Recover the amino acids of this structure.
């Protein structure tokens, strides 16, 4: 029995999700008509001046990632599965400074008609990751939660 081809709508949704994921991470996917399965990796990235500062920011970056994952679940009404956080080794730059990266991975599936909450939640998470990369924790929302 031949496998059903994904709908044009699912293919268009994939392109949209790939654009969003490209802001601060990447996306793996699989078509399982009538669903599109999505596996996201989002990078939380902070640049510091010293290695000691980089070590000190790791717990805060982990907490930030966990808060983003929780917000993804809430904003998607549970359609996004619980995620996982992984801290990458601290990276030194030749010109000075250090970068700390935390990878948050999460998965979901969407259909032609059931995608809006997931799309909105994912876009907000990736926008928050871009904000963190560009402004660091100094521009964090006053409530202590991710801005956005």
């Amino acid at each position: 029995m031949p496998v059903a081809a994904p709908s044009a709508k699912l293919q268009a949704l994939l392109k949209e999700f790939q654009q969003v994921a490209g802001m601060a991470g990447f996306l793996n996917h699989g078509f399982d008509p009538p669903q599109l399965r999505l596996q996201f990796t989002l990078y939380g990235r902070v640049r510091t001046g010293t290695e000691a500062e980089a070590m000190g920011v790791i717990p805060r970056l982990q907490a930030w990632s966990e808060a983003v994952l929780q917000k993804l679940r809430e904003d998607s009404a549970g359609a996004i599965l619980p995620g996982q956080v992984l801290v990458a080794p601290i990276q030194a730059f030749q010109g000075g400074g250090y970068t700390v990266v935390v990878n948050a991975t999460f998965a979901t599936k969407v259909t032609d008609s059931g995608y809006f909450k997931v799309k909105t939640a994912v876009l907000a998470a990736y926008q928050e990751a871009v904000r963190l990369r560009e402004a660091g924790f100094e521009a964090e929302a006053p409530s202590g939660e991710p801005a956005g």
Remarks:
- The beta strands are 25-32, 35-48, 84-87, 91-92, 98-111.
- The CA atoms of residues 47 and 106 lie 24 Å apart.
